[in-house]
Amino acid sequence: MRLSWMIGGAQGLGVDTSANLFGSAVAKAGYYLYGNREYYSNIKGRHSYFNVVIGSKPYRSISEKVNILASFDAETVFQHFTSVTDFLIYDKASEIVKAETVRSMENEITEKVVKELESNGFGTSISDVIQYLNKRGVKCIPVTYVDEINTVINNLKIPPPVAGKAKNTVAIGASYALLGLKADYLRSAIKEQFGKNDLFYNMNMLAAEAGMKYAKANYNMEELQISDGRVQIDGNTLSAMGKIAGGLRFQSYYPITPASDESTYIEANQVVQTSTGGSGGVVVVQSEDELAAINMAIGSSLTGARSATATSGPGFSLMSEGISWAGMNEVPVLITYYMRGAPATGLPTRSGQADLKFALNVGHGEFPRIIIASGDHEEVFYDAIYGLNLAERYQTPVIHIIEKGLANAYSVLDMKTFSGPKIAIERGLLSEGGDGYKRFAFSENGISPRAFLGKASIFYTGDEHNEMGHITEESINRRIIYEKRLKKLETADKEIMEESMVNVYGEAENVILLWGASKGVALDAMEELNEKGVYVEVVQVRMFNPYPKEYMRKILSNKRRIIALESNYYAQGAEVLTEKTGITPTASILKWTGRPILLDELVSAIEDVVVHNKKRVVLDGGA
Amino acid sequence: MEEHNVTEFNDWCPGCGDFGILRAEDLALEELKFDYKNFVVVSGIGCSGKAPHFFSHKISGVHMLHGRALAFAAGIKLSNPSLNVLIEAGDGDTFGIGAGHFVNAGRRNIDMTLLVHDNGVYGLTKGQASPTLHRGEKTKSLPKPNINDAINPIALALSVGYTFVARGFAYDVNGTKELIKKAIQHKGMALVDVLQPCPTYNDINTNEWYRKRVYNMDINPVVDKLEEIPQKISAAITKSYEWEEKIPLGIFYQNELVPTFEERLKESMPDYMDNYPSVQKIEENGEATTVYDKLLQARKVA
Question: ipTM greater than 0.90, yes or no?
Answer without folding.
Answer: yes
